[in-house]
Amino acid sequence: MLFLSALLLATPIDSSLVFKKCGAPSVPIGVIFSAGYATFSLTDKGVPDTASIALPSLERGTPPGLRSALARQLPSCRFKISRSADRRRVRAHVAFTAGQLAITEIVPVPPDDSLGAAIVGLMPRPGVRYTIGDDSLEEKPDVGCDDVEVISGEFSSNQPVSAQEIIHEIERRPHVMIHFTVAPSGWVDTASIQFDASGIGQQAQVIKRRLMKCRWTPGRVHGWPVSVRMERSERL
After folding, report:
1. Which residue has the higher pLDDT, 144 or 231?
2. For residues 170 and 153, what is the distance between their CA atoms, to the nearest angstrom?
3. Which of 152, 155, 124 is nearest to 226 (CA)?
4. What are the DSSP calls for 35-49, one per residue?
5. Do residues 16 and 109 make contact, with C-beta atoms less than 8 angstroms apart?
6. Dihedral Cα 164, 169, 171, 176, nearest 10 deg
7. How far apart are CA 85 and CA 82, in angstroms?
8. What would the pLDDT profile of 72-111 be if each residue is shown by its tens digit?
9. Confidence (pLDDT) at 118
10. I need a labelling partner for 112 at 20 to 30 A (CA). Which of 65, 87, 158, 192 fits?
11. Where are the beta strands (DSSP E) in 89-136?
């Protein structure tokens, strides 16, 4: 699972405004590569007001998609504002790289700056299932848990096992390709799980249980979570 962070601005442009840090968002962000210039207002405590986000210019992605990701990330960000500052609206360059946010070029702007047109993302049609390579899928699902390898009983409990032996045991196992759908909720649709192999019996059930326990960050189109057909290789 990706943990999000923001890069510090090396030298503040205005001493009355300093970017401090961003933490992990309360609602996770998937794999996204959107960027552009954003303006937003700050509270007295230096917390961005997500309702005030506007996007004067866009470099990658769609306005609804970028705004959705910023609305999830910015509440964890903090800015330091001088008490004498009379402008609490800022303009910043924002860029997501695989879900990690970098904030640079931060400057105060007049409070009456143009917010531009309302950012409205069209809601995807119900029941539509996207594929991981679909160009309209702006935010791709991200795995939300660590894979747990199940070691077979070839090592007795009283026999010392080195890390290299365990890695060798895992690497020599055959692979199987699994196809499944990550629902808008982030959970894997159990009925969608398929294997590109037959006769794997109990091992298939182990892999299914592992997938069902893992909650993903769902994929998004125009900021809305959608169903995404995935595939991955697993060792038996």
Report:
1. 231
2. 12
3. 124
4. EEEEEEEE-TTS-EE
5. no
6. -160
7. 5
8. 999 999 998 876 555 688 999 999 999 999 999 998 887 6
9. 57
10. 65
11. 89-97, 100-109, 129-131
CB-based contacts of 183: which residues, under 8 Å, 6+ apart? Answer: 189, 218, 227
Contact (Cβ atoms closer than 8 angstroms) between residue 68 and residue 124:
no
Q: Which two structure tokens, joined as six digits, stand for 52? A: 């005030």
- Longest Cα–Cα distance in the chain: 72
Closest by Cα among 174, 96, 192 to 142: 96
Q: What separation, in Å, do the N-terminal and C-terminal C-alpha atoms of the chain show?
A: 22
* Residue 167 CB neighbours (<10 A): 11
Return the percent helix, strand and coil in the chain, to nearest 5: 15, 35, 45
Say whether 173 sits in a helix, a strand or coil. coil
The pair of structure tokens assigned to 187 is 């959970």
- Are 48 and 38 a contacting pair, CB within 8 Å? no
Separation of alpha carbons 91 and 224, rounded Å: 25
Q: Residue for token digits 């990330």?
A: 73
How many alpha carbons fall within 13 Å on the CB side of residue 82? Answer: 10
Place of tokens 């991981």: 132
CB 50 within 8 A of CB 70: yes
Handedness of CA 37, 38, 39, 41 (dihedral sign): negative
In whole angstroms, give the CA distance from residue 28 to residue 189: 19
Is the CB of residue 12 less than 8 Å from the CB of residue 68? Answer: no
- d(Cα 69, Cα 34) in Å, to the nearest integer? 9
User: What's the pLDDT score for residue 153?
Assistant: 38
The confidence score (pLDDT) of residue 73 equals 97
